[in-house]
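Question:
When you can, review this sequence-structure pair and walk me through the tokens.
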Amino acid sequence: MTTLTSGTDALTRDALTVLQPGFPGTTAPDWLLRRLGEGLASVGLFGRNVASPEQLASLTARLRAEREDVIVAIDEEGGDVTRLEVRTGSSFPGNLALGTVDDVELTREVARELGRRLADCGVTLNWAPSADVNSDPRNPVIGVRSFGADPHLVARHTSAYVTGLQSAGVAACAKHFPGHGDTAVDSHLALPRVDAAPEVLAGRELAPFHAAVAAGSRAVMSAHILVPALDPDRPATLSRRVLTDLLRGELGYDGLIVTDGMEMRAVAGTYGIERGSVLAVAAGADAICVGGGLADDATVRRLRDALVTAVRAGELPEERLADAAERVRALARWTASARAVPPSPREVTRAGVGLDAARRALRVTGAEGFTPLTEAPYVAALTPVANIAVGDETPWGLAAELARLLPGTRTGGFTGEDAGRAASAAAGERRIVAVVRDEHRHPWMAKALDALLAARPDTIVVEMGVPQSPPRGALHVATHGAARVCAQAAAEALTGPR
């Protein structure tokens, strides 16, 4: 698209202000710094931007040198979805583990400690927590990212998470409104549909968002899902009925509304990112998230010019764009002021709170008569394809933690219905620890585990996803997530007190 504006007029500045773009690499490119000078107010960070806490702090300081109140956002849920520890696995369990423990003070403390670490690195907005109720066990993208399937439980932990995170000076962003839990499609790949009646939505999907609003969540992220009971024509991100009438009107929310990634196929595949962004702002969104896949200056120019063109053509009211930009600036002011206030002594958290939470979330079946492992086992990881939100950069499994406790532990990854036989052969005489992730969603995994247990009945099974299938194996350990601390807690359970 031809550049239509110089980057200096008020309309152009507003168009830049509502964008939350990403960028490649671990240092800020010149084009990004230039856009911050022209009106860009937010930057989104992903795993590719993080090498270490020190590097991240240096990066955010460079951004802040260009614009002191810049909003620095990141997708750091803890658990399976981590950017701070993308190459090692998270020091905090995810939402399902916290919901399993069901101690709201623990959830608040975990969120506060996570927020403290983000704040130390200069991050001011966290695209978390997931407030989705995981009511469909087949859900391929939410799963352990949800606190659970009970809307009341999800609501109280969403509230605790928001409170804890924001007490550390980092803005929370409850997602994915109006609720992505009752879906069997990943919106990164296609448009999911939630066919629930209005009364079901009110009592299930919306309950955690009511809690988030009541807790003062500074941001809410929209979902790229179609909910016919709310709007039969447009996905929530592009729907005025959902964002303005429901979220603003009925729920009384007055903070920032940010979209999920606009390059996701649920929107981009039908509307394109330019048209989708215009429709989102017109519907009531205030910030356009883009950069998980498209992360360059050309994308920023395309979206900026699309918004300016839509205003000039009368397709997007100028006052709506101005209102959206002002909401972004209001959040920028809050984050800047929050950074200036040190946490009170009573808000100081335990450094080991993540591991404590992971240990408390373990559920062990068949422990009666189980003798802890003393010899190095063979860890057979039955490995599914990682969903896009989690990504494939972050390691998971049990082998590294078991090897730390039992040097000489060996491991292998297996996929497909022949995986059980292959794992049994690879293990030789060693005791097998089979590690699975959402066995109930993968028929090949269940069949492989059948074969493995038939051949080796003493196999230990560790489920690191949603433990929907009945426990089986000589010992069954459910971790409720695949964070590094979940693996550490499981390894401790298999080897006994030390």
Notes: The first strand starts at residue 19 and ends at 21. DSSP finds 18 helices and 14 strands in the chain.
